[in-house]
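pipeline stage [seq->struct] | target=Anaerobic ribonucleoside-triphosphate reductase | organism=Candidatus Nanogingivalis gingivitcus | residues=748
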Amino acid sequence: MTNNLQYKLFDDSQYTRYTDAKVQKRDGRLVNFDMHKISNAIKKAIIAQTGSFDEYGSYVLDKTMLYIDSAIDHDVQMGTTTFTIEELQNIVEAHLHLVDANIGNCYKTYRLKRDEIRQKNRDVNHQVGAIERGDETVNNENANKDANVFNTNRDKTAGQVAKVIGLQMLPPHVANAHEKGDIHFHDLDYSPHLPLTNCCLIDFEEMLKNGFRIGNADVDSPKSIGTATAQIAQIIANVASNQYGGCSADRIDEILSPYAELNYKKNLKKISDISYVFNELASVSTARNQNRFNEFLEQKATEWTIKDIYDAVQALEYEINTLFSSQGQTPFTTLGFGLGTGKWEREIQKAILKIRILGLGAEKRTAIFPKLVFTLKRGINLEKEDPNYDIKMLALECATKRMYPDVLSYDKIVELTGSFKVPMGCRSFLQGWKDQDGNEVNAGRMNLGVVTLNLPRIALESEGDFTKFWNILEERLEICHDALLYRVERAKQAIPKNAPILYKYGAFGKRLSDNDEVDEVFKNKRATVSLGYIGLYEVATVFFGGEWEENQTAKNFTLKVLEKLYQKTVEWGNMHGYHFSVYSTPSESLTDRFCRMDKEKFGTVTNITDKDYYTNSFHYDVRKNPTPFEKLDFEKDYPKFASGGFIHYCEYPVLQQNPKALEAVWDFAYDKVGYLGTNTPIDKCYECGFEGDFLPTAKGFKCPNCNNRNPATCDVVKRTCGYLGNPQMRPMVKGRHKEIKSRVKHMR
């Protein structure tokens, strides 16, 4: 067993006689008295002051601990059974000063600093001021939010205020765990200040069929595919403004097909009325000619309809990319397609891919949204003899040039999640669910939020002791349980008229009246709520060293960790009636936040905090550069326990001249993983024509060929989380290029 920590805890096993004593935390919880935590805090103060833990440091620790033990023993003998955190800190500070005043002052300074941080987290003026101060942890939190824009700046200002209010609303022990970095309560800038939901699969089919209302407008069912896509764009904008996560359209090709058929019928009638057709008709004198004439009509109507489809899909692409929700950003939107085999479904699929390949505007830039997810299915498009194999070829071309589409393996998704559907947003998956009539339901369901557990911290705190690791994990999971339950209870406090598009007009499937409880669309496991996690690589590194991927014992340990999370979510789901799921968190800023906080707490630890980021979810350590096949073989075992949210990525060089290489990976992955994304360089310089991977610098990304870094004449697109992002829209500050370089790499 390898321990990468720079120091070991002081051997204070002799201090075990306070088994009945309790410590009252700042959040009011009572926990068992643990002398190890006191000795660890003193040791960190010694190292902070002297730079090491040598013989003198051991002397200071020994002598101080003897004083403290005597003081606590006296209090216990006098009948004290519970100590507050402040009382213990005062005891430590007083006796550490007796032994070494400088180290005592260091301990006091750290304590005051932590108190100051806690106060600032609850200070509205300080939090709002972070935007004006240019705090990059605030202004650069989201790769697709430009803090320079007025409406985005306004949303961020409101969000900073909401964070302060939210922390005050949370159960004290949950807020405390979030502030300390034990957990992360996601999206505090929106929830719990408001009872918002997270991400969803919009029920577009129901809304388009039965109509809906936005603002003062009652919208009828569309009579053409162009109107249908226009309505979809408006629905997306309204839904995105009434929740805080991504929204998806499942099977968009099949949803739009009936409206393409309406266009075809109108085109057929229109072309029959054109005068030159009657001239053609005049030459028809036989049944054979009549058939040829009918074929002519159908051919022309089909051609016109294909043009209508293309125009409608192109309009949808532009509308989504030019929308701004109330959050000050383009809605995080996903379109799923690929299973339809009918004439119009095929044309819709082809239009989606051709338009994405073409690009946006005169310079043909890569569209950031919507995220495209293409479904592979054996018998439909996977193999050469399948009817839609030609569309798979088009999808491969698109992925090599624009990174999207990501691909879903139909059979594996059904195996992992219980039914087929695209993810909500970038990677959050609903689990199979049937209504009271036994009908499978996916569209119209949603997620109520995420709380992520800092797994590497638990491993660091355990110092390579498996028993201690499992004990700490059990304790932290109970905090997550309380946090997730709070998310559910807060979301249930909404009323239908708070978000009519969601609850009254079909986006969430059921249409509720003003007097209905919104829990009608949440309960009985219709909604999910997610337990996130980060850093399985770092967890195993604490116990087995940084090169553990080929060690089956180490991998089995990481699988047991995920299985433990999965078992807990099943237990909670059965207890409360909501689907608690394990979610492989994609947060582009959280991998940095947890590591930054743990580096402050534990120092620089090799292969853990020294990287300045934690490895996302269950991914293979990116520094080792595995082949796509090695990476997928390694990662394929994890989603079984994390089916509430997962995705696999593979790194490639420029692929535009070799789409067959990407097809080989897609085919290899089909029976192994459910959801696969492509990372390939697609940056483009419009001054010299270079296409490939731009270089991050302190002044922004630059073309490696001509050094151009002007955003107006280059297109830089990176995948920094589940979605693509344009990092050039974010201001570069000191060291920013290093952060982007590491983020772009490790978030893949």
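stage status: PASS
auto-comment: The mean pLDDT is 87. The chain is about 50% helix and 10% strand.
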